[in-house]
Amino acid sequence: MRIRTEPGSDRLQVNIEDELTIYTVADNRATLLEQWHQECPLEMDLSDVSEIDSAGIQWLLQILLEGERNQLSVSFINPSQPVKESLELLHLTHRLSGSAMVSSRAAEE
Amino acid sequence: MEEVKQIFVQEAEELLEQMEDALLSMEDAPDDDDYLNCAFRAVHTIKGSAGIFGYQFIVDFTHPVETELDRVRKRERTLESSLVAWLLQCKDHIANQIQFIAQQGDTEPLPKELAERSDSLLDASQINLQPVMQKTEAQQLPAQVEPELPLELHRQNNWLISLDFKADTFRHGLDPMSFIHYLHGLGEIAQVMTILRESKPDESIDPESCQLSFRIEFISTANKQTIAEVFSFAEDDCDIRILPPQSKQQHYIELLHQVPQTQLQQLGEMLLQVGAVTQSELDKALQAQQHQAELPHRPIGEILVNQQVVHRAVVDEAITKQDATRSHMARASRSIRVDPLKLGQLINLVGELVIASASMRTQISKHGLTEVDEAVTNMERLVEGIRDNALQLRMVPIGDSFSRFRRVVRDVSSEQGKEIELMISGGESELDKSVVEKLNDPLTHLVRNALDHGIETPQERIIKGKSARGTVKLNAFHESGHIVVEISDDGAGLNLESIRRKAEAIGLVRSDQPMTRQEILRLIFEPGLSTKQEATRLSGRGVGMDVVKRNIEALRGSVDLDSEIDQGTKITIRLPLTLAIIDGFLVGVGRESYIIPLSLVEECVEFNRGTWQLDSQNNFVSLRGEALPFIRLRDFFALPGSAGTSVRESLVVVRFGRKRAALVVEELLGEQQTVIKPLGAVFDHLQGISGATVLGSGDVALILDIRGLVDLAIEYARSDLHEPVLGSA
């Protein structure tokens, strides 16, 4: 996982590498929380995710939820093919797409 | 036609009895629809058959009654006690109409008073009873609402699958997504709602714990079983609920409709059979039912609906079907009617068969025919089976005669301003139909005594520190070949002093005569003793307890009484189960043989001076240190010859109720199936004999009246000792 702060902005940019599954979610979370203290917006690039499972999806939803709770914008960009397919299967594409702050209200449309 | 009419009358009477039962139960449990349905069915059936037989006046009367009941069923009117009272009156009136049909020819016109009664009853339904209750209807509705499911997911033809994965799902190596992926193969996923179950804010988030739930709207032609199989892997880690589409519901309802009415099935089984639930859903619901703390358990149908695995409409249909099957089967099982005379003939023949088989046994031992022995042993076993079965045919539960009293109690309560509760237990105990019939009158008398004289008015009871509501209990149970019927109340009890005074006044006892408590209580069974000053309408019309006692004794039974002032009275009736054939114990004295009913034999002790000694002086026998009153049969029946010292005597200890005594005999001959033959009126007053039987050898043996002998033995022992020895304490 690569984490960097965009110059001139407080937005945290995260790039997930490799797989996002039950085997990696705990480590990913620990790494993320070192940098992201739920004080700044988050942008997560999913283009390099080679594999995702339900635990990975849940992880994304959890981050989304934490952002909502703290009124922070959390966005997911550039989903890789495996991520796209899974989101479609679970009818989550709409909810996780876009870079705007996604409120829970909008997600349920 | 006459025969057919009898069937109609008999059936109608049975239905009316059921209806009365149901109506009375309805008062106690107004929410229980079973009783209501039962009453409705009864009226409906009577109306139907009356129509077939052309009794238009019954149809005219029952139709409005049925309508009223149906309105209650549809919650269009409430069931208040005035309605029940009216329905009870209607039931009585129908019974009167049926009576009229039974007694009169078909051409007779309906008597005027019956017709007028019909009109006045039907008028009463219009005037006195409350109109339609809108409110109740509205209150009923919420129960019918479908279980809560996200409304936007609810579509006509879609399956609704709800998956709630448990925390350990990921750790167990399951990927919920893969199940949903697999579902694609079976149909089209119209909608998926992925829900992240929120952990509490203070709880730290564990990304490895599964918090995912899914609500899936699914379009498929597969059946429920197939869809459920997709998730069979996940069963332990997921709460799975699969709710079939509306269109399927109709299909299930139709299937349920087609289930043949031949076999009564559990509700769950029926739902499983038509595919409305899967085995694992049913197992889970049954488990949930088992683990419920509250009693009674919630019905399985309700649990299944709550778990959202099946629609309420389907469960309702299954329940309706179950009810229909149940009543269908009940009808079928009632449908064999046999003339009691034919049954009597059968039992007589079986009796002869028993004697013939005993006779064959005698011949075999006499001639030493070992090769026939096995065949005859086999036949004897069969004869015994036939005997038991034949006797069983006449066995009926005593409950029917018990439940008649619910009406009596109700009527007396309102008439005399008393609050009385009737508690019935042991109604399933069976006894011979002929005994039941003869028991009805004494039982009625005793119950009415308890209601009239026993239970006090609420005011009196409160002054005595008792609850205002009195209780009368009817209980029955089997005990060593007898049925015991107990009638007890918690009323005033018997006043020993006033009984004694009365007995002295009519010269029954001398004023200086010492008497035990039990003896004074037993005076109540003497003719001419009624303690209540004024007679009421129900009891105390000269039919005293002496008649009750005589009736019971005519059935070879006994009646006992115990009473405590202000605590209540308990009357215990003990009756043999059957009047036809018993297992007997054959004993010999000199050349004579006697039968003792085996069920009354407690033990046999062979001649052995070490175990028992006769104390002829005081008329008791000491058996292992215990003093028992006894009767030596040789002396009692004044048989010629003397017992002498050379005869080895044996003891048979018998028990009747709480009393025991010993009979001294000379030979113990063993068990013997005994067909009871009445001795005839001439011998009615013989002491110690209750009947006779024919032995296999063709000899006649007398059947001992153990109750009488035990009483006599106690009396002898007492008269010599001048104090009570045993037993009746």
Number of helices, where a helix is a run of at least 4 consecutive DSSP H or I residues of chain B: 23
* Uncertain residue segments of chain B: 127-155, 533-542, 721-729
Quaternary status: heterodimer
How would you sum up the major sheet of chain A? 4 strands, mixed
- How many strand units of chain B? 22
What is the helix fraction of residues of chain A, given as a range?
40-55%
State the shape of chain B: globular
Structural class category of chain B = alpha+beta
Would you write up a description of this structure?
The complex is a heterodimer of chains A (109) and B (729). Chain A is α/β, with parallel strands linked by helices and 109 residues long. Helices cover 40% and strands 21% of the residues of chain A. Chain A contains 5 helices and 6 strands; from the N terminus they run E-E-E-H-E-E-H-E-H-H-H. Chain A has helices at 25-35, 54-69, 81-89, 93-96, 104-107; strands spanning 2-5, 12-15, 18-20, 42-45, 49-52, 74-77. In chain A, strands 1-2-4-6 form a 4-stranded mixed beta sheet. A two-stranded parallel ribbon of chain A has the order 3-5. In chain A, strand 1 and strand 2 form a beta hairpin. By secondary structure, chain B is α+β, with helices and mostly antiparallel strands. In chain B, 46% of the residues lie in helices and 20% in strands. In chain B, strands 14-18-19-17-16-15 form a 6-stranded mixed beta sheet. In chain B, strands 6-8-9-11-10 form a 5-stranded mixed beta sheet. In chain B, strands 20-12-13-22-21 form a 5-stranded mixed beta sheet. In chain B, a hairpin with a 5-residue loop joins strand 21 and strand 22. In chain B, helix 1 (2-28) runs antiparallel to helix 2, helix 14 runs antiparallel to helix 15 (370-393) and helix 16 (399-416) packs parallel to helix 17 (433-454). The relative contact order of chain B is 0.05. The chains are: A alpha/beta (109), B alpha+beta (729).
